[in-house]
Amino acid sequence: MNNHLLALLMSLLLSGAAIADPVEGRWWTEDGEAIVEIRLLDEGLAGRIIWLLEPRHPESHERAGQPLLDVENPEPEIRERPVLGLRILEGFERRREGDWRGGEVYDPENGRTYRARLRAVDEGAGLNLRGYVGTPMLGRTSHWKRLEGDIPSDRGQGIDDHDGKGEQ
Description:
Elements (H helix, E strand, L loop, with lengths): L1 H14 L9 E4 L5 E8 L2 E9 L34 E10 L2 E9 L4 E10 L4 E7 L6 E8 L10 E2 L10
Antiparallel strand pairs: 1-2, 1-8, 2-3, 3-4, 3-9, 4-5, 5-6, 6-7, 7-8
């Protein structure tokens, strides 16, 4: 029986199934106002917002004090969904370790979806997200930093505090 267990462990290690890609994990967005969790799912790499510094609409908004909703979405029927827990990255295919292409990034601030690439940098401590229209030359790169430690509990709001936990 020990030989079977050893063989199983070796096959997992050799297949790479036991080793996470450097882009997986929890990431501070460039502006420090959100944390996005990126995971490999059956349908590919995906990421969702799991923490927001300002989880409610500002005082200047008609929904002041209410949970931040996806009000800029071009599809009226889903504008009531919360931004906290929202999937904003999907469809990425692995080119090589730490380099994912062919995906999309959704920006809830303007309701637009862009083609995107993800690349781990700084030995896995950083992540470059390039969102673009048409060609990567017509885009912008955002640098995210890996979250070290726990999600902040002294400010903002995390997904565990939210009624609609949602799914990745």
